[in-house]
Every structure is written in structure tokens, then in C-alpha cells.
Amino acid sequence: MNLCKEGFFIFIPNFFKGKKKKSKLHFKISFILPLIFIIIGIFLGYKIFTKPKTPPKQWTLTENENKNVKFLTEESLVKEIRDVNKIIPLEIELSETIVVDKSWGDFEVFKKIKRIKFFANCSYAVDLSAIENKDITINKFKNEITLSLPKPKVFSVDIDEDKTIYEESSNGLLRFGDIKLTSEEFGVIQMEVAKTFESKMNDPEIYNKAVSNTTIVLEKVLNQIANNEMKVTINFKD
User: Fold this and answer.
1) Can you point out the beta strands (E) in the chain?
2) 3-state secondary structure at position 97
3) Alpha-carbon gap, residue 117 to 5, rounded angstroms
4) Are 167 and 116 in contact (CB under 8 A)?
5) Are 78 and 196 found together in one domain?
6) 41 and 74 fall within a common domain
7) 170-171 and 86-101 beta bridge pairing
């Protein structure tokens, strides 16, 4: 009877002791599992929200492509050229001598003439203000620009009065004194001289120089705009 009692009392503490161990294990599992899920959730959230995005595709220009660092379109180039407005491909100084004749008839003794030599600063211009998109073509592969432009025209004829040379009158035996010109007469003479200068500027040798210079000047202008050396081909409109 005593053994049973002792066994009974021994069993009871062991029973409570085993139950206590199970409670601790259950508590640990209940604590650790949520902690594991929290850690997994934080890790997945970090991967999803902070994972670096794929960088955008970058293009590297080759050595040949790098020539056109400043990319041009027909529209942008037309605007730049229009802003230039006009170019002066050639400036030239011309001279012309005219004879003022106030002789009386054809007799030498009544002759009275005077020579006047005029100088003028003359120039040609090419109008760029009316250029359109259809007038320009860009070949980026050949680094070439083709333009259709109006031909150079006479832009200015400025007589330099400070350089005008007045010779003394050449008089016959029976004529005396210098030839005096009124302001009206001198104005008419200047108008006629200006027409003569314009006519001289249509001389093929001078005009062709203006045409060839147009290409040279435009190459410089376009190379400054494009920040690059480009071949320029010009087709002149009729």
C-alpha cells in the first residue's frame, strides 16, 4: 500500500513535469514559426521593392558615327540657315573713268573735255531667308549636305566719293577755264556710272568668282552650325 502510494505520488510529479516540457516546446514553436515567416516576408519584400531595375539600354557611338555628335535634321538646319539671312560671297572694288565733253562742235580748237575716275565698293549676296525644307538634303553616312539656292545677285554698288579723281580740263586753243558741273549734272553722272558698275559685275569672270565663293562661304557657315566638317554641294536655281 505504501508502494502504491509512493508510485502514485511519483507518477503525479512526472506527469506534471512532462506536461510542462510539452508546454515549453509548444511555446517555442509558436514563437519561432511566426518569427521565421516575418523574416521571410521582410526578405521577399526587400527583393521585390528594392531590387535594382534593369538599366536602360545604352548606345555607344562608334568612331565613325561620333563625327556627327550634333545631330541635324533638315528642319533644324533650315531654321539655322534662315537666321543667317544672307551671305556675301564676294566684295570687289571696281573703277570706271568717264569723260565729260563740253566741246563746241568737232573742231579741235573748240574742244573742252574733263575726265573723272570713279571707284566703287561692290558686292554680291545670296538670299537665305526664303530657303525651305525641300531645298536641303542631309546625307549623314557621307557627311554631306546638298542645298538648292538662288544664284548670287548684285547686292551693293557704293561709290567712294573720297577716292574720285578729277582731272583738269583738256581745252582747245580757243577754250578756257575748267568744266564746272552742277549738282544735278553730277547726280546724273553718278547714276550712269553705277549702272556701268552693275554691268561690269555681270562679267563672267567676276560672276563665276562669286559663284565659287558661295560654296566656300556656305561650307564655313554650315560647319559652324553643325560643329563638324561637312561637304557642301550647291545646286543653283534658275
Assistant:
1) 86-101, 112-127, 136-139, 144-150, 153-159, 165-166, 170-171, 231-237
2) strand
3) 155
4) yes
5) yes
6) no
7) unpaired
In the block, residue with C-alpha cell 556701268: 196
Query: H or E segment at 46?
Result: helix 2-50
pLDDT in tens, 77-116: 888 888 888 999 999 999 999 999 999 988 899 999 999 9
How, if at all, do strands 231-237 and 144-150 pair?
A: parallel
Asked if residue 120 and residue 48 are part of one domain, the reply reads no
Distance CA 221, CA 230 (A): 10
Asked whether residue 64 is assigned to any structural domain, the reply reads: no
Report yes or no on 98 lying in a domain.
yes
Structural domain harbouring 53:
1-58
Residue 175 near residue 111 (C-beta atoms within 8 A): yes
Q: Which residues are within 8 A (CB) of 196 and not within 5 positions of it... i.e. 6 or more apart?
A: 96
- Does the residue 225 lie in any domain? yes
Same structural domain, 121 and 184: yes
Do 185 and 114 meet the contact criterion of CB atoms below 8 Å apart? no
* Contact (CB, 8 A) for 160 and 121: yes
| Domain identity same for 108 and 41 | no
Residues 5-36 pLDDT 10s: 444 444 444 544 555 555 555 555 666 666 67
Spatial contact of 225 and 74, defined as CB atoms under 8 Å apart: no
Number of domains the chain is built from? 2
- Does residue 190 sit within a domain? yes
Residue 102 and residue 194 in one domain: yes
